[in-house]
Amino acid sequence: MSQPYDTVGLNGVQPEFLRTFCFTFRVGSSLNIEMKNESDKSFAAPVLALDVGQKRVGAAVSDSLSISITRLEAIPRTNWKHLLRVVDQLIKSFDAKTLVIGLPLRLNGSSGEAAEEIRSVAAKFAKSLALPVYLQDERLSSRQAEENLRESGRRGDQVSQVVDSEAAAVILSDFLKSDQDRFLVPRS
Fold first, then answer.
1. CA 162, CA 154: separation in Å to the nearest integer?
2. Could you check whether the bond before residue 132 is cis, i.e. omega within 30 degrees of 0?
3. Which helix (DSSP H) or strand (DSSP E) does residue 83 occupy?
4. How many CA atoms lie within 13 A of 175 on its CB side?
5. What residues does 69 pair with on adjacent strands?
6. 144-to-5, 13, 15, 17 alpha-carbon distances in Å
7. What residue ranges in 47-123 does DSSP mark as E strands?
8. pLDDT tens, residue order, the chain (188 aa)
9. How far is residue 8's CA from residue 1's CA, in Å, rounded to a whole number?
10. CA 92: distance to chain centroid?
11. pTM score of the predicted model
């Protein structure tokens, strides 16, 4: 059973313990430890992830070792300047080194109107922020987020209040997995 992400760490294991053994702990729907050479990592942590929706933008952040993921409060989606200001504040607050934005591809992998809008938003972030911006395939992330929350005992309004940020945590988890393709947004 997958669990929602929180600030406790993974299954009660404290980050200090993991640092001692030089593991990189990858977060996913199941407990998965793998040896990972840091020089193989093509991104810097902490990583801030966004799930950009029509009404809200879910947010989640990893720690500096990519050991745990913390779900953050969703950001109301109003206008571009507000979103940029809030994301910039989050980047500074968590000392994020990388930004990941969920890319809503269709189930067959093709791009639709929503994916094109997100590519445009990602390009604006890449131009406006001094850190690398990546797009991460987010197919079924909202469904996985709802499942995670329901499995943890949340119902109805409790799910709808945090599903956007839980989806961002799922996107971030997928991004941190070594077998995932990462799409760097150019700074044109």
1. 10
2. no
3. helix 80-94
4. 38
5. 62
6. 12, 23, 25, 29
7. 47-52, 56-62, 69-76, 98-103
8. 444 444 333 333 333 333 322 233 333 333 232 322 233 357 899 999 999 989 999 999 999 999 999 999 999 999 999 999 999 999 999 999 999 999 998 888 788 899 999 999 999 999 999 999 999 988 766 677 667 666 766 677 765 667 788 889 989 998 998 666 778 999 87
9. 17
10. 16
11. 0.74
Task: Give, in words, the CATH class of 15-184.
Answer: alpha beta
Q: How many CA atoms lie within 13 A of 81 on its CB side?
A: 0
Instruction: Supply angle C-alpha 50, 51, 56, rounded to 5.
Output: 105
Query: What size, in residues, is the chain?
Result: 188
Q: Where are the domains of the chain?
A: 15-184
